[in-house]
Amino acid sequence: MKVLVLVYPGMTAQDMVGPITALSALPGYEVQFAWKQAGPVPTDSGLSVMATHAFAETWSEPDIFFTGGGGKPTMDLLADADTLAFVASRGARAQWVTSVCTGSLILGAAGLLQGYRAACHWAVGDALAAFGAIPAHERVVIDRNRATGGGVTAGLDFGLTLVGLLAGEPFARVVELMLEYAPAPPHGCGRPDLADPATVEAALSYFAQSSPGDAIGQAAARLA
Amino acid sequence: MKVLVLVYPGMTAQDMVGPITALSALPGYEVQFAWKQAGPVPTDSGLSVMATHAFAETWSEPDIFFTGGGGKPTMDLLADADTLAFVASRGARAQWVTSVCTGSLILGAAGLLQGYRAACHWAVGDALAAFGAIPAHERVVIDRNRATGGGVTAGLDFGLTLVGLLAGEPFARVVELMLEYAPAPPHGCGRPDLADPATVEAALSYFAQSSPGDAIGQAAARLA
User: Fold this and answer.
1) Given B28, B36, B120, B208, which residue has the most CB atoms within 10 angstroms?
2) Choice among A115-129, A182-196, A203-217 with the minimum mean pLDDT
3) Residue B208 host element (H or E)
């Protein structure tokens, strides 16, 4: 089970760590972390993670290709031709093409979601339509061999769902129990329909700082 | 807000990444990742993370001291005098002494939980009593300046709870919404009381491989 993970400066570490925590329980799990060069890559939380391989040195036909998302750094990546070419090439030959959060915008900008239902972070998910995808405001979306998760913490639901599909429900139940995934969100407002208007407004203001609309519009124009 | 995080080989990456994803939203957030030497540290999922500082070079009085847990590598750490001395020294002067999952065993072995209620992973939490702690099978436990979370994914609940305590509920609600923390566990069995007996048995067998009882007993004997 060869899992190829895109890492990039400013990415949201949680988007990736939730999924690989679940997937690493799979029998035969192997993983490569890819960026333009091997070495440390800073993430959103002050944590740097190691890219193990430069793009050209990675598996050409992984079982799973995965990318997480982020804020402004992810929007910047939508204009990065080298990275999108790598994503398109590996995505075209992977058994599973997958993402969490705004990682689906990267898949979309690489042309990998045309005609597919896909999830994204709630604040920007509708923009997936610019890439020919069908936006789905769900925690985990499986459409043929595309598996996409919602925002950030949805990576846990995504990873555990994929473990169930790949290794069966009995095994996935053991993994879910080992990860003690019986969540109890302390503030009870993790979706816009659960949150008060001031909270939603504050979150939207934060996301607007990374101007996702401009980046997505330009990426969609290049793809067309 | 100086957050000092212990990192060590074989640790469970998710234990740490959930909390710092929430805490990094705090105004004035700064972070150090400490191990015996600076440089890459391998984790459970194939991901290596960067230790930014050797023990002696870290803040002596952090606002938050944090450690995550793991399986066998965490049990091995309970016999590591250098690491426990570091944990004891920073814990004694931190404003908050905190952990997720079996990280509380490390705090306990360093003598930091005597007389405190504390959480841990469900499979080994009762063993905290060996260190004079009061085991609490809860998702997040706050007792004076000790804040501890349950197993692995409880780090998200832990982090968001701490953000609420440190920066107020309105801010914490925005963070919870930005992280889209409206979980939907796909298999519905993330606690032993939610799981079928075969699933519980399989998980317990897995944990037994790291012989936590022996490691904890020996660490408690050294502490006494």
Assistant:
1) B120
2) A203-217
3) helix B197-208
Please answer yes or no on whether B177 and A196 come within 8 Å at the CB atom.
no
CA distance B179 to A101: 9
Q: How far is CA B10 from CA A126, A145, A169, B68, B72, in A?
A: 39, 32, 27, 11, 8
Chain A residues with CB-CB distance to B178 below 8 A: 151-152, 203, 206-207
Q: Which residues contact A110 (CB under 8 A, 6 or more apart)?
A: A84, A85, A87, A88, A91
Cβ pair B176:A196 closer than 8 A? no
The backbone region for A8, taken as left when phi is positive above 0, alpha when psi lies in -120 to 50, beta otherwise, is beta
Residues with Cβ within 8 Å of B33's Cβ and at least 6 positions away in sequence, in order, are: A46, A47, B5, B7, B41, B49, B50, B51, B52, B53
Angstrom distances, CA of residue A158 to CA of A66, A161, A198, B114? 11, 5, 29, 39
Strand positions, DSSP E, A61-126: 64-67, 96-100, 117-118
CA distance A128 to A124: 8
Model confidence over B35-62: pLDDT tens digits? 999 999 999 999 999 999 999 999 999 9
The percentage of residues in chain A with a pLDDT greater than 90, rounded to a whole number, is 95
User: What is the ipTM for the molecules in this complex?
Assistant: 0.96
A189-218 residues touching B, CB cutoff 8 A: 189-192, 194-196, 198-200, 202-203, 206-207
Q: How far apart are CA A51 and CA A35, in angstroms?
A: 6
- pTM for the complete prediction? 0.97
Task: Give all domains of chain B, ordered by start, each with its CATH number.
Answer: 2-223 (3.40.50.880)
Report the alpha-carbon distance of residue B78 to residue A79 in Å, rounded: 48
Pick from A139, A181, A202: CB nearest B153: A181
Which one-letter DSSP state was computed for residue B131? G
CB proximity under 8 Å: A 158-187 to B: 160-161, 164, 169-170, 172-174, 176-187
For chain A, helix, strand, coil in percent to 5 are: 45, 20, 35
Tens of pLDDT, residue by residue over B167-180, are: 999 999 999 999 99
Average pLDDT, chain A: 97
Nearest to A5 by CA among A50, A70, A71, A44: A50
Give the catalytic positions of B in this structure.
101
Which regions in chain B score pLDDT beneath 50?
none
